Amino acid sequence: MGVGALDRLEGKRAIVTGAGSGIGRAIAIRLASESARVVLADLDEEAAESVAAGIDGETIVQRTDVTRAEDAEALVSRAVSEWGGLDVMVNNAGVGAAATIVDTSEEDYERMMDVCVRGTYLGMKYAIPAIREAGGGSVVNMSSVAALVGIADRALYCAAKGAILAMTRGAAVDHVGEGVRVNCIAPGTVDTPWIDRITSGYDDPAEARKNMQARQPHGRFVQPEEIAAMAAYLASDESASVIGACMIVDGGVTAR
Ligand SMILES: NC(=O)c1ccc[n+]([C@@H]2O[C@H](COP(=O)([O-])OP(=O)(O)OC[C@H]3O[C@@H](n4cnc5c(N)ncnc54)[C@H](O)[C@@H]3O)[C@@H](O)[C@H]2O)c1
User: Fold this and answer.
1) In-domain check, residue 133
2) How many angstroms is it from 116 CA to the middle of ligand 1?
3) 186 CA to middle of ligand 1, Å?
4) Which candidate, 135, 154, 195, 235, has a CA 20 to 30 Å from the CA of 96?
5) What integer pLDDT is reported at residue 123 of this predicted model?
6) Which residues of 9-29 are buried (b: 16+ CB within 10 A; e: fewer)?
7) Ligand 1 nearest-atom number relative to CA 190
8) What is the pLDDT of residues 77-114, one digit of tens each?
9) Catalytic annotation on 233?
10) Residue 35 falls within a domain, yes or no?
11) Has residue 209 been placed in a domain?
12) Which residue from 209, 205, 233, 206 is spatially nearest to 221, judged by alpha carbons?
């Protein structure tokens, strides 16, 4: 069945953070293609606007810094005031840096922990009561294979994504009784602008790109649409018994 042939999210109201680029962009497009109404939240409002312009469905764009409590609260309030409630929250926005612990600056520590960990915490803090109020729904957090295996030059990023995985499990246990399912996705290396930023730092970016693809057992990057398909499943009622799970979409990296 091709994308667009499913209609699992009819009537659902969703928020996707980091929707202006890469994985978040693909998730917003996929949820909308399955008939959800989607709020596209991003620090880069222009990027989110341009993604929304390509979506044939009801959307809202909201400039949001996920590290700011007032922004997270305003984001959830916007969905509730415009659409009467919230059913799905995708906490996707995240940042990384390539370095060992020894070479990671405190600025990069603050930035990674702030966007990944505080951002996911605040997204859940304001979205969960709204989803509960709507009678239940789904939270999807963006972890990474970096939470599950050591990845060279990513130690602090591994810690940030590991925190998201642990937070997902804890929150899942706390809110399952309220009908709020909390899960996360652990992507392998996904072909997004993020990868271009990392490879541009190497002497030979094309070679670095090839090496990154080669380290995936299936020999290629994961596509953002493949992560979006998992997010749509987790957002839908088909995943009703999937609770506190870490859904790995990594081309086999963690199977080794
Ligand atoms: N690309 C990969 O290989 C990969 C692998 C595993 C996990 N992930 C995770 O997937 C998520 C998306 O990654 P991507 O590759 O699409 O990255 P990306 O850089 O292409 O997109 C990230 C988006 O998040 C937005 N953003 C950054 N900081 C923000 C903030 N404070 N508030 C709101 N929005 C903010 C950016 O403006 C951008 O539009 C991240 O959490 C990342 O850690 C990516």
Assistant:
1) yes
2) 9
3) 13
4) 235
5) 99
6) beebbbbbbbbbbbbbbbbbb
7) 3
8) 999 999 999 999 999 999 999 899 999 999 999 999 99
9) no
10) yes
11) no
12) 209
CA of 94 to the centre of ligand 1 (A): 4
Encoding tokens for residue 175?
Answer: 């809110």
Ligand 1 pocket residue status of 91, Cβ below 6 Å: no
CA distance 10 to 84: 15
Contact at 8 Å (CB) between 119 and 141?
A: no
Decide if 196 is inside a domain.
no
Instruction: Tally the domains of the chain.
Output: 1
Segments of the chain scoring below 70 in pLDDT: 1-5
Q: Which domain holds residue 116?
A: 13-187+222-249
pLDDT of residue 254: 96
Atom of ligand 1 at shortest range from CA of 22: 16
Report pLDDT for 4.
46
**pLDDT for the residue numbered 1:** 41
Which residue out of 109, 157, 202, 233 is catalytically annotated? 157
